[in-house]
């Protein structure tokens, strides 16, 4: 994959961006987000037909702005909607068990540290997401922050494999992530909760 696609990776679900998530997502795509991931988790999360239709609407927006569309942790949905790829966590489906649909798609994997890297098969992985780099409230299961030193260590261990930083990333600290080896930054609230989506996106670029 083009590692430049990780430069500004926006993650969002139907409950992260107020009452107009599709508007926020389109504004983010229009103004420079380079990859988008649908992560539909938590209380009142969409499911079934509602989730499929929401994902389909996002796919159309991603196609309109030529941005890769990734789905988190739901390979069946990703295949059904025709997404560009899947992102899996350590406790999600084993990458080796993904259906053939994903053979030529983007596969991302969350890898926090040396221990998780040691137990992960990254032979089919196109990029890894590492973090949380800084403390974050966006994900209940994020774990303790690894700091930019954790990013630097991961870069040393994975060589040239594309890597995106995640967790607690703001306009004030995102450059540190790039300086310590990340190809880009991934965030939820830094864009989803912003009053001015255009300004927020441009602030990370």
TrEMBL record:
InterPro entries: Aldolase_TIM, ThiamineP_synth_sf, ThiamineP_synth_TenI, TMP_synthase. CDD domains: TMP_TenI. Its EC number is 2.5.1.3. One of its GO terms (molecular function) is thiamine-phosphate diphosphorylase activity. It catalyses: 2-[(2R,5Z)-2-carboxy-4-methylthiazol-5(2H)-ylidene]ethyl phosphate + 4-amino-2-methyl-5-(diphosphooxymethyl)pyrimidine + 2 H(+) = thiamine phosphate + CO2 + diphosphate; 2-(2-carboxy-4-methylthiazol-5-yl)ethyl phosphate + 4-amino-2-methyl-5-(diphosphooxymethyl)pyrimidine + 2 H(+) = thiamine phosphate + CO2 + diphosphate; 4-methyl-5-(2-phosphooxyethyl)-thiazole + 4-amino-2-methyl-5-(diphosphooxymethyl)pyrimidine + H(+) = thiamine phosphate + diphosphate. Residues 8-191 form the Thiamine phosphate synthase/TenI domain. 4-amino-2-methyl-5-(diphosphooxymethyl)pyrimidine binds at residues 37-41, 72, 110, 139. It holds the Pfam family TMP-TENI. GO terms for cellular component: cytoplasm. Pathway: Cofactor biosynthesis; thiamine diphosphate biosynthesis; thiamine phosphate from 4-amino-2-methyl-5-diphosphomethylpyrimidine and 4-methyl-5-(2-phosphoethyl)-thiazole: step 1/1. Binds 1 Mg(2+) ion per subunit. Mg(2+) binds at residues 73, 92. One of its GO terms (biological process) is thiamine biosynthetic process. It comes from the Bacteria. 2-[(2R,5Z)-2-carboxy-4-methylthiazol-5(2H)-ylidene]ethyl phosphate binds at residues 136-138, 168, 188-189. Its cofactor is Mg(2+). Condenses 4-methyl-5-(beta-hydroxyethyl)thiazole monophosphate (THZ-P) and 2-methyl-4-amino-5-hydroxymethyl pyrimidine pyrophosphate (HMP-PP) to form thiamine monophosphate (TMP). Belongs to the thiamine-phosphate synthase family. This is Thiamine-phosphate synthase. It comes from Salinicoccus sediminis. The lineage of its organism: Bacteria, Bacillati, Bacillota, Bacilli, Bacillales. The gene is thiE.
